[in-house]
Description:
Helix content is about 40%, strand content about 20%. The chain has helices spanning about 10-20, 30-35, 50-65, 90-95, 105-120, 125-135, 160-165, 240-255, 265-270, 290-300, 310-335; strands spanning about 25-30, 70-75, 85-90, 170-175, 185-195, 200-205, 210-215, 220-230, 255-260, 275-280, 285, 305-310. Keywords: Proteasome.
Amino acid sequence: xxxxxxxAVEERLFxxxxxxxxxxxxxxxxxxxxxxxxxxxxxxxxxxxxxxxxQFERDKDDIRExxxxxxTLESPTDPGNNQALRYRIAKGDYDLPSDITFTxxxxxxxxxxxxxxxxxxxxxxxxxxxxxxxxxxxxGSKQLIGYAPRIRTRDAxxxxxxxxxxxxxxxxxxxxxxxxxxxxxxxxAPTAVVQHQGRWYLQAxxxxxxxxxxxxxxxxxxxxxxxxxxxxxxxxxxxxxxALAELDQIWRTHVARVSVRPGTxxxxxxxxxxxxxxxxxxxxxxxxxxxxxxxxxxAAFGPEAVVxxxxxxxxxxxxxxxxxxxxxxxxxxxx
Length: 335
């Protein structure tokens, strides 16, 4: 197995998008795992790559949730064979909509930004991966420079938490739960930091409750303070996989039903979420891990999406929309 340094999640996702944009015929899973930065370091030719394949499945879901139109193509000569599936990102689907225009000043600024991006958009690793893909007979597009997928960056708490995990020490931080006005200080023993559905989570042993808890990193407010106290027991080697399995179980058992307007952004994006099911009546069933996060996403679609169930999600979205109305009413009154 390759002993290269670990590849950051953002870099792996970017490399995957870049590779899939570069080909018109698509890439098989084997070609991706053996050549793309972030997978190839762990790929074992002819060996057991099941954990790497699961990582690829999660990455596919993550980039789709970011709005990247990843397609799956069946082999015309071997339909139904999952190993023969090809993946690609059609360039036309990743271009800006034709009705978006820019002023001359905006165009100048975009060109300046593109000049800066052009210098660093293809790292040495990315170039080598593309060369390897071409050596396999995959013809790539020449128009690669300038593609910048909207990849969510890590939360500020990520670095200090992973550092504390490596050192095996307790940490303190303030955590703001949904619906609460004030954050509460937590002292925990980190056991794993994982990414699930495009968001970062900490699994840890809460020292006050003496029980495992899962924290969303984006709800940690203020700095993460590492203590000098060692964790009571070392983290299990399978802690990361266990945390993801737990989050997946929550995701599978929580389902919402949403009515969407045809032809809207809500229909397109919600219909592409992992595990979404489109129903004949125009509604979509969605799995979710965190009700508050889903409520934030659905409220952002405004009238394009109407929640049908569960009732708790209906109430959560209504609260957010009423808060928006109230804030705009206050702004009008102040004028």
